[in-house]
Amino acid sequence: MTTVNQTAPPPTADASAEAPASAPADAPAVLAEISGMLRTMLDEYGLDDIEVTMETRFTEDLELESIDLVTLAGSLEARYGRQVNFAEFVADLELDEIIDLTVGQLVEYVVRCLRAARER
Question: Do residues 38 and 31 lie in contact, with contact meaning Cβ atoms separated by under 8 Å?
Fold first, then answer.
C-alpha cells in the first residue's frame, strides 16, 4: 500500500492585506482612482456628470449616505488592500467631521497608508 504525504501547503500572505504593486502613492493618481470609484457609484443614481475634486464633500456635494460609504470602503479595500481601512479612518473623526468629510481628506489618508506600507 502506498501512502501519500498530505501536508498542508505553507501559509501564504493574504493578497488583500497588501496593496498591489501597481497602486499609486501620489495624490493626483489616487484622486483619479477614487473619482472613478465614486463615478461608478453615482452612475447608479444618474449623477455621473458631477465633478469630483479634492474639495468635494461626500455628504453635501455628492449626497452620499452611510450605505454608499460602506460600498466605497469595499471598493477601497478591493483596490488598495487592507492597509487602507476606511472604517478605521472615520472612527477617529467626530460626527460633524464625518459629515464634512472631503474627497481630499480621503485621498491624503490613502496616500499615507500606501506610503507607510511601502516603507515596511
Answer: no
Contact 110, 44 (CB under 8 A): no
C-alpha cell at 87: 472604517
46: left (phi over 0), alpha (psi -120 to 50) or beta: left
Whether 59 and 101 have beta carbons less than 8 Å apart is answered as yes
DSSP code of 17? G
The grid coordinates of residue 35 equal 473619482
Indicate the pTM of the whole model. Answer: 0.79
Dmax (CA) for the chain in angstroms is 72
C-alpha cell at 72: 466605497
Amino acid at 101: L
Q: What sign does the dihedral 105-108-114-120 (CA atoms) show?
A: negative
Residue-wise pLDDT tens for the chain (120 aa)? Answer: 433 333 333 333 444 445 565 677 899 999 999 999 999 988 888 876 788 999 999 999 999 998 999 999 999 999 999 999 999 999 989 999 999 999 999 999 999 999 998 888
Cα 81 to chain centroid, rounded: 8
